[in-house]
Specification:
two-stranded antiparallel ribbon; 3-stranded antiparallel β-sheet; 128 residues; alpha+beta; 5 strands; single chain; 12% strand
Amino acid sequence: GHMGISDSEGIASDFQGAYSVGDRGRMAFGKPTRALRLDISSLVPGGDYSAKRQKWDEAIQLANEEYRRRMHNICCDNCHSHVAYALNGMNFRAYGISSWDMVKLCFLVFFKGRFLSVGGFLHQFIPT
């Protein structure tokens, strides 16, 4: 499935295709059906909450800028890679992971992500 990451204000960014990153909260394939909540206190090193929010937002912005210069590759450099790039850029540690990649994110969201609604669950698993 498609993946994006939200800044500290909840505005989603996602790698939407070749040289294209959406960063205004409108994801390429519609509203999210599942989400994984990440605790900003897991940012390393420590600091106050305001500094962590700034670090979080800056890492997402840097990932967005980087991926605006990249060609999309469905197997190797995709929306999951964009999120991993942001998490690695902010030195984020959670779920025993400190080095993020698309495979780790895929499994983590599949097993730990929560559906945002019954409709989201049905949309994901029942053919239309």
